[in-house]
Amino acid sequence: MNVMLFQQIAEMNAIRQFRGTSSQTSNSPFQSLFSDFIQNEMEKANIQLNTKQRQMDLFLHPIAQLESGKQLSALNDTRISPLTETGNSRVDTYKKWINDAAIKYNIDPKLIVSVIKHESNFNPNATSHAGAGGLMQLMPETAKSLGIMNVYDPQQNIEGGAKYLRQMLDRYNEDTRLALAAYNAGPGNVDKYGGIPPFKETQNYVPKVMNTFLNT
């Protein structure tokens, strides 16, 4: 805020009052000037903030700028739109449980679908070399902490995976990229590296899931 400008306004108002030009109404010229001053300063701050954001965007590839806009639009829309019949038998098989979990944990069901697609390709019996199991590939320890007894039960697995996604979204202030990175590599690694960890698997995983999510 420009303090010198504020002082000048105050001094001008004092001179007017001394000369008897001030209004005796409840809304004094000083109040009006102060209000206008504050509003102008706030508008300047917003313009500067938006300008900085635009300048940062200039460093992005044009396609990245477009995707960034799509992502902001998608992530700022907090409405939950349940999945309808998609015609994709793999999705439709689990549609009800996906919608239930999405509503319960306030997650876009398309994000859950995208995670399932890239974790197990809708195979409820999938098991990774690391021991993660089921549709959303929950590790035994993670499943236990989430209260999931059988990771190969699709309903339980989706419930647990959605709950874990919500925990990661809360942890990273609704940043979907970081939540997905934590889902894949663990929140400890995201915290350690201050962002998406430099692991090839995670570096590939996050954009793939995001691309499916934004284009589903």
Overview features:
216 residues, mainly alpha, Lysozyme, 2 domains, 11 helices, globular
Q: What does the model show?
A:
The chain contains eleven helices and no strands. It is mostly helical and 216 residues long. It folds into two domains: 3-19 and 30-75, no CATH class; 82-215, Lysozyme, CATH 1.10.530.10.
Q: What is the topology?
A:
Layout: H1 3-18, H2 29-57, H3 62-76, H4 89-93, H5 95-105, H6 109-119, H7 140-145, H8 154-171, H9 176-185, H10 187-193, H11 200-215
Helix pairs in contact: 1-2, 5-8, 6-11, 8-9, 9-10, 9-11
Give me the number of helical elements. Answer: 11
Strand content: under 5%
Shape: globular
CATH topology category name of the largest domain:
Lysozyme
How many β-strand stretches?
0
Count of the domains:
2
Radius of gyration: 26 Å
> What's the helix-strand series?
HHHHHHHHHHH
Contiguous uncertain segments of 5+ residues: 21-26, 45-63, 72-77
CATH architecture of the largest domain: Orthogonal Bundle
End-to-end Cα distance: 45 Å
Largest pleated sheet: none
The first-level CATH class name of the largest domain? Mainly Alpha
Mean pLDDT: 80
Helix content estimate: 55-70%
Helix/strand-derived category reads: mainly alpha
